[in-house]
């Protein structure tokens, strides 16, 4: 497994505060207590087997859930950000949250697949590492280990787990079905992490995992307000340049681009509320005005906010 190591030259040269500085302790890094999600809370929003006819097309969209496909027969295509992935029988695809994508078939063949949607917040309460800066959770690990998606040939472990999830979801009225589903999802995510070849390891030095985890949590909590990267870097006692380089290395997106995508997705979640105008939505997710919101929305989604709102209402 190849690990990428990034070092902050300003801090390595002594111009800044090193991690090992005697006056910098874990207490200086603001942490919040982790809230463990109860296992009885439902995470799955859909788990079933589907059949789509030749020529089917689901246009570009974005959502905050994790989406899994296991192709049973035929083939399909997915445009994921700037890439086109051709999935065939026996393939496994897992799309990460806040990733623009589409799903479509050619005009020659049908496609059957197992399809699962679930809320990734389940994994935000499972701590894999805690070095005193910011706990690194299972959700962080999933985001760190892939840019936009996980794609490989399925195997018997994945097949059995997906079949189990679909069966449990169909009998969701049983006493412990939600807990069984959540445990199965956790096991599946850990297996996928072990199976994948990540660009970063949880053993990465210089507390890099925690720096990015802290930044992601900060964005999640403050996206509705003005976010200044320098403020986050100061809280972490690292340089803004280092944080910018580290964030892009882990997330595959620049800091401003990630925030824009995050805000756009939050705005899409508000669109079904007819009591909110598009201006109301824009202001509530951190944009200063509707004009800037529309410009960013068009760049991210390739449609105007009003067009997309009509699309999801169909």
TrEMBL record:
Family matches, as Gene3D superfamilies: Homeodomain-like, Jelly Rolls
Record-annotated membrane-spanning stretches: none
Pfam families, per the entry: AraC_binding, HTH_18
SMART domains: HTH_ARAC
Keyword tags: DNA-binding, Transcription, Transcription regulation
Gene Ontology molecular functions: DNA-binding transcription factor activity; sequence-specific DNA binding
Residue ranges annotated for the HTH araC/xylS-type domain, each copy included: 213-311
Listed PROSITE patterns: HTH_ARAC_FAMILY_2
Entry protein name: AraC family transcriptional regulator
Lineage: Bacteria, Bacillati, Bacillota, Clostridia, Lachnospirales
């Amino acid at each position: 497994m190849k690990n990428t190591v990034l070092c902050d030259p300003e801090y390595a040269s002594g111009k800044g505060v090193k991690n090992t500085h005697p006056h910098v302790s874990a207490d200086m890094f603001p942490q919040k207590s982790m809230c463990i999600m109860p296992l009885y809370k439902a995470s799955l929003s859909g788990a079933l087997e589907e059949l789509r006819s030749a020529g089917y097309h689901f246009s570009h969209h974005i959502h905050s859930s994790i989406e899994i496909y296991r192709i049973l027969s035929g083939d399909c295509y997915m445009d994921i950000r700037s890439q086109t992935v051709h999935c065939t029988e026996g393939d496994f695809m897992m799309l990460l949250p806040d990733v623009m994508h589409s799903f479509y078939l050619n005009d020659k063949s049908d496609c059957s697949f197992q399809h699962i949607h679930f809320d990734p917040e389940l994994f935000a309460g499972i701590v894999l590492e805690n070095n005193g800066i910011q706990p690194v959770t299972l959700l962080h690990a999933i985001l760190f280990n892939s840019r936009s998606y996980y794609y490989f040939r399925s195997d018997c472990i994945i097949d059995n787990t997906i079949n189990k999830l679909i069966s449990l979801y169909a009998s969701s009225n049983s006493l412990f079905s939600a807990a069984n589903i959540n445990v199965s999802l956790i096991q599946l995510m850990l297996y996928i992490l072990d199976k994948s070849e990540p660009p970063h390891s949880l053993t990465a030095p210089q507390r890099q995992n925690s720096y990015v985890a802290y930044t992601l949590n900060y964005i999640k909590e403050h996206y509705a307000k003005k976010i200044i990267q320098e403020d986050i870097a100061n809280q972490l006692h690292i340089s803004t340049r280092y944080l910018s380089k580290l964030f892009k290395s882990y997330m595959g997106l620049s800091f401003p681009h990630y925030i824009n995508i995050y805000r756009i997705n939050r705005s899409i979640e508000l669109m079904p509320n007819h009591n909110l105008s598009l201006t109301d939505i824009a202001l509530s997710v951190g944009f200063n005005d509707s004009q800037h919101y529309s410009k960013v929305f068009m760049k991210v989604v390739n449609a105007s906010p009003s067009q997309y709102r009509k699309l999801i209402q169909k």
